[in-house]
Specification:
Layout (H helix, E strand, L loop, with lengths): L1 H23 L2 E4 L4 E4 L8 E5 L4 E7 L5 E6 L4 E5 L7 H6 L33 E5 L3 E4 L8 E5 L4 E7 L5 E6 L4 E5 L3 E2 L45 E5 L5 H10 L3 E7 L10 H9 L3 E7 L10 H14 L4 E4 L16 H18 L4 E4 L11 E2 L2 E2 L1 H10 L9 E5 L22 H12 L4 E6 L22 H18 L2 E6 L12 H4 L9 H7 L1
Parallel strand pairs: 14-15, 14-23, 15-16, 16-17, 17-18, 21-22, 22-23
Antiparallel strand pairs: 1-4, 2-3, 4-5, 5-6, 7-10, 7-13, 8-9, 10-11, 11-12, 19-20
Helix pairs in contact: 3-11, 5-6, 6-7, 7-8, 9-11
């Protein structure tokens, strides 16, 4: 009996050592969706295993581009994986050593990554693990979205965990800000779910009321709050009508991790009107950008800017990952005719920025993307070309009130690799490089966020209306090829933070032929998804 006890003690010690080595042997991360492990950094290399969503990882290196990561699982499998499907920050990727395609580095040999101390778990057993939130997420009173929200965590916040539910998809613990509750395991990196005990209930839950509405800081200086919005890197998403199974499948095939919805704001509207969109996106594994556009007929109402700012601040408090402040405010379709003014818009942007950062410093603030046009020949009562408008924003100090400069590019009929050759002429809005250079030239102190980038093709839909006849010769194959080229150029540029494909699943094809921009075509195919995901 004494020998048996000794053996058990030794085995337990070895197990504890192996778990400790795994937890400390590199950058802790987890798989965001089912992912291939390969014997080299690229899809042309052989698949050696498939990792399920939620699989904990230790990342010990990357290729030169940062698109492929080298790491190991808790079961000892090692190999290369696509970075876009791993819950790891861009800063951590940049700090990894660059490895060759034949790397045989042991994950356990990598230098440990320092972690901030997490609070002791106040409920149940002592902490059995510490996870890091890979996006803003809610804490709930039980293991499921049907339980009430008792708190929330920001991206990057740590969560000391004492157990999990039987299914292993929810964990219980306390955040570094002292809030107790249950969190969806898919949104936490660095946890080894297999080592956690199964628990239930929620002793000593600290009830967390939604943050109170913050007064809007006066325009003139950016609000003095810490800005934890992610900077640098590149991410891809799509603008959708809704997250149906078909749409989700197409987005995942294309490698999209963000989803965009546009929301119309009417004065007096409750920010909770956005809660369903945010929860739906997060529950399906996407970060969410909300383009929040007011009504032009209300802009001149009393206290409007403060009301709009308090609304977007409330939406940020609900966990929106990014907010675009208005849309195409340089034309009278979206802003009152005769009052189109970059200085006045900058006042709205400043009020919105201050409110958002006061409520959730981690929310990315994107300036409203302008309508790309040279139609007005400058500025007049009905509109303003985007070049003078963006220059006016820069002169008004708009760079102080944004994390990212919003851009639309949706009138291309040639490859984004070309800077000339469009049969309609040489205006810069015809060309992807022209858009990038013009916007960086006017406000290059901020990265670009393409909140709409798409190519119009009537294939399979019929004739285009007259105003869109310029795209009549664009095929679905060209749409797929050009989108893939644009994404690759943006990813490699170092100046584009986010690119939202316009659009994924719209079906209307009338005077505004939105279905022609959709990457899911009328027959259900998605050639662009295959191109983007290859």
């Amino acid at each position: 009996m004494k020998r048996i006890i000794t053996v058990v003690v030794i085995l337990l010690a070895l197990l504890m050592i192996s778990v400790s080595v795994f937890a400390q042997g590199g950058v802790a991360a987890s798989v965001l969706r089912n992912l291939s492990l390969r014997d080299g950094p690229g899809t042309n290399f052989n698949r050696v295993a498939i990792m399920n969503a939620g699989t904990p990882l230790v990342i010990s290196g990357r290729d030169a581009s940062g698109i492929w990561l080298y790491g190991s699982t808790s079961s000892g499998q090692t190999g290369w994986m696509s970075a876009r499907h791993v819950g790891i920050s861009f800063d951590n990727i940049a700090a990894l050593p660059v490895l060759g395609a034949d790397a045989a580095v042991s994950a356990a040999a990598a230098a440990p990554v320092a972690q901030a101390a997490a609070p002791a778990v106040s409920a149940g057993q002592p902490g059995a693990g510490v996870g890091t939130a890979i996006s803003n997420l809610n804490l709930r009173s039980g293991p499921g979205t049907n339980f009430g929200r008792v708190g929330r965590m920001n991206r990057g916040e740590q969560f000391a965990v004492d157990g999990r539910n039987a299914a292993g998809n929810w964990v219980r613990g306390v955040s570094s800000s002292g809030q107790s509750g249950w969190a969806a395991a898919a949104y936490l990196s660095g946890l080894n779910l297999a080592t956690l005990p199964v628990v239930d209930g929620l002793p000593q839950v600290a009830s967390a009321a939604p943050p109170p509405a913050a007064p809007v800081a006066p325009v003139g200086a950016p609000v003095n709050v810490p800005n934890t919005a992610a900077a640098g890197g590149f991410e891809l998403g799509g603008h959708v009508q809704g997250l149906s199974d078909r749409t989700i499948g197409a987005m995942r095939q294309a490698g999209m991790s963000w989803v965009k919805f546009q929301l119309r704001y009417s004065q007096g509207q409750d920010p909770n009107s956005a809660a369903g969109l945010i929860a739906d996106a997060h529950s399906k594994g996407f970060r969410v950008l909300l383009g929040i556009v007011g009504l032009r007929d209300q802009v001149n109402n009393g206290n409007y800017f403060n009301d709009y700012a308090n609304f977007v601040g409330g939406v940020a408090a609900l966990g929106a990952d990014a907010i675009e402040v208005w849309n195409e405010q340089n034309i009278d379709r979206e802003w009152p005719s005769g009052q189109i003014d970059p200085g006045r818009y900058t006042q709205l942007l400043a009020a919105a920025y201050n409110a958002i950062k006061s409520r959730n410093p981690g929310t990315l603030v994107i300036s409203g993307a302008l309508a790309p046009t040279g139609f007005f020949g400058g500025c007049n009562a009905n509109g303003c070309d985007d070049a003078p408008y963006i220059s006016g924003m820069a002169a008004a100090g708009a760079a102080n009130y944004m994390d990212c400069l919003g851009v639309h590019y949706n009138e291309g009929i040639i490859s984004p690799t070309q800077a000339s050759g469009d049969p309609r002429g040489g205006h810069y809005t015809r060309y992807y490089p022209g858009m990038v250079n013009a916007y960086l030239g006017a406000l290059g102190s901020r990265p670009l966020c393409f909140t709409e980038l798409g190519y119009l093709s009537p294939e399979g839909l019929g004739s285009l209306p007259g105003d869109f006849g310029w795209a009549g010769g664009t095929s679905v194959g060209q749409q797929a090829q050009w989108l893939d080229e644009a994404v690759n150029i943006a990813r490699g540029s170092g100046r584009v933070r986010l690119l939202i494909v316009w659009n994924v699943d719209f079906t209307a094809f009338g005077s505004d032929p939105m279905a022609g921009y959709a990457i899911i075509r009328p027959d259900g195919s998605c050639p662009a998804c295959a191109a983007l995901g290859s």
